[in-house]
Amino acid sequence: MKSLRRIAIFLALSFGGIALSSAAFADLVKVSVNGMVCGFCAQGITKKLENTGLLEKINVDLEKKIVSFSTLPGKQFDDSSVTKLITEAGYTVVKIEREKP
Amino acid sequence: MTSFRNNSTGLNGRVLTYILARLTACALGFAIGQAANAHPVVFDGGTAVMGHQQGGMTEVEVIHSPRWWYGLGITSERMASSTNLLGKATVLVWRGNFPDFQSNFYLGLAAGKKWNSSSESHQTAPTHRASQQKSSEWLYQWNAEWDGEDREFYGRVHHSQTFKQDNSRSDHSKVRVGYAPYKATANEPALWGMLEWTMHSTENFSKTEHNVTPLMRFFYRNALFEVGSSLSGQFMFNFMFHFF
Fold first, then answer.
1. Which residues face B82 on adjacent strands?
2. Is the pLDDT assigned to residue B122 strictly greater than 60?
3. CATH number of the domain bearing residue A70
4. Which site in A54, B15, B22, B108 is 20 to 30 Å from B66, CA atoms measured?
5. In angstroms, what separates the C-alpha of B218 from chain A's closest C-alpha?
6. Are the beta carbons of A61 and A44 closer than 8 angstroms?
7. Residue B207 forms contact with A (CB below 8 Å)
């Protein structure tokens, strides 16, 4: 019974640690977007992402057609939210990649 | 000495104020007299202030887009003999987002009033009384527009028809092609060379005017300026600012 309690505590701490560590570190997100051809496009997408208050280091690369940003530490911004936001801005999401720092 | 310094500062202040006032007046002069020359729908939640001036035609337009696919705006058009004020709604009917290219098709409706100035009343001497009595009339307009661009080439076709209360109609068509000598990134100034052809007909095509204007477009972040001169010598100045 004692060992079972120890295992439970160990598992709880392990999962808690994993959850905490993933929340504490920011994701670097790279989104391939179709339809970005000018500075106004870049500005529209940047402002839309800025308005969420969840992101930083937002950059639009017209050459590579990539929008990149980091989530603020402790904040979550899942793929469906990324797609919804960029679609609402009038552009088409092709691919989303995430990197852990 | 102190007094002299104070006077000098006062003089400089007055000169500075005068220069600033003149510059502001020039800027307002351009703004008050000027038409829109880019997307008629701004990005999601954005507002655009646009102006156009060429020959005797000046236009100022303010558009707000609550969503990325439609825009609502007010346009003021000033001509030598009249002023039009129109409320308009534009819908982005179709957008094609391609890897290196974007294309859009818009449809718009507008309604408003036209005020004839006194000079028009004098010019139309035989109908002087009638013109005076009818100093304003309702206008209705529809327009369609296609544009397509990548970072190097640009094309735009626009057509509008305006109907007056007396059933007379005026048509306005515009075709533009543009080329960018370099592909600007999002954070550097962009430069475009453009060629514009316009056709304006009034009173059911009784009078038609054609214009070809080579122009330069300067574009940086939320500001766009265009300067050109038509082959017939009419100066053109356009501007556009985007806000959130």
1. B116
2. no
3. 3.30.70.100
4. A54
5. 12
6. no
7. no
pTM confidence score: 0.77
Instruction: Classify residue A14: in a domain, yes or no.
Output: no
How big is the A-B interface in CB pairs under 8 Å?
Answer: 83
pLDDT 10s digits, B48-104: 999 999 888 899 999 999 999 999 999 999 988 899 999 999 999 999 999 999 999
Q: Nearest residue of B to residue A34 by CA position?
A: B99
Domain count, chain A: 1
Mutate to test the interface with A, among B42, B44, B151 (most CBs of A within 10 A): B44
The answer to whether B46 faces chain A, any CB pair under 8 Å, is yes
**A31-63 pLDDT, tens per residue?**
999 999 998 899 889 999 999 999 999 999 999
**Cβ-based contacts of A48 with chain B (< 8 Å):** 43-45
Ramachandran angles phi, psi of B14, nearest 5°: -65, -40
Mean pLDDT for all residues in chain B = 83
Between B16 and A48, the more confident residue is A48
DSSP assignment of B171-203: EEEEEEEEE-SS---TTS-EEEEEEEEEEEEET
Give how far B33 is from chain A: nearest CA, Å.
25
Q: Check CB contact of A47 with chain B, cutoff 8 Å.
A: yes
Q: Is residue A87 in a domain?
A: yes
A6 within domain boundaries: no
pLDDT band at residue B32, thresholds of 50, 70 and 90? very low
CA nearest B219 in A: which residue?
A39
Phi/psi at B169 (nearest 5 deg)? -130, 140
Q: What is the ipTM of this complex?
A: 0.74
Contact A37 B101 (CB under 8 A): yes
Give the helix ranges, DSSP H, for chain B: 2-32, 118-123, 128-133
What is the span of the domain harbouring residue A64? Answer: 25-99
User: B103 to chain A: nearest residue by CA?
Assistant: A35
Contact status of B150 with chain A (Cβ, < 8 Å): yes
Nearest-angstrom CA–CA distance, A25 and B193 = 47
Q: Decide if A23 touches B, using CB distance below 8 A.
A: no
